[in-house]
Design brief:
The protein is built from five helices and five strands, in the order H-H-E-H-E-H-E-E-H-E. It is of the alpha+beta class. It has a five-stranded mixed beta sheet with strand order 2-1-3-4-5. Strand 3 and strand 4 form a beta hairpin. The radius of gyration is 15 Å and the shape is globular.
Length: about 150
């Protein structure tokens, strides 16, 4: 069952799409092949789904950058909700920000909405523990196989 974005966020996003929002030219858009390869890599990864128009994303970003800096063994991928629609749809993201931890293509944890530094830190620590084998992948809360990409 899909969650519905809050009306205000949906309206802002829709307005930007209708207005033809301009994205920075320095931001690289991934091709379908690059997106699939990015998702299917072995190991741990934390995806942060965000948008320029999302105030909660802006508030959460400093905490996420701090956690990413303190856990360099876990790659953080910041995903533009408007630009990288294939990843958004593949993960079923409907609320921003959404932070998803994956190990070998398996979702192990998800935080929807603005989380705390403690929550993001725990997610990164759990991912590190699963990679090292200290926590078995089968014990991951919220674990689910992702559908294959196109």
């Amino acid at each position: 069952m899909k969650k519905i974005l809050p009306f205000i966020a949906l309206s802002a996003g829709a307005a930007m799409l209708i207005a033809g929002s301009s994205r920075s030219k320095s931001r690289k858009r991934l091709s379908r092949t690059e997106k699939s390869a990015e998702l299917d890599e072995d190991g741990a990864r934390i995806y942060v789904f965000e948008a320029e128009w999302c105030d909660f994303c802006k508030k959460a970003k400093p905490a996420l950058l701090e956690v990413a800096e303190n856990h360099p063994s876990i790659p953080f991928k910041f995903v533009d909700f408007d630009a990288e629609r294939e990843l958004v749809e593949r993960f079923g993201v409907t609320l921003l920000p959404t932070v998803i931890s994956t190990i070998d293509g398996v979702e192990t944890a998800r935080i929807e909405g603005q989380g705390s530094v403690d929550q993001y830190t725990q997610m990164a620590k759990d991912a590190e523990s699963m990679v090292s084998g200290a926590i078995p992948l089968s014990s991951a809360s919220g674990k689910k196989e992702l559908p294959p990409g196109d």
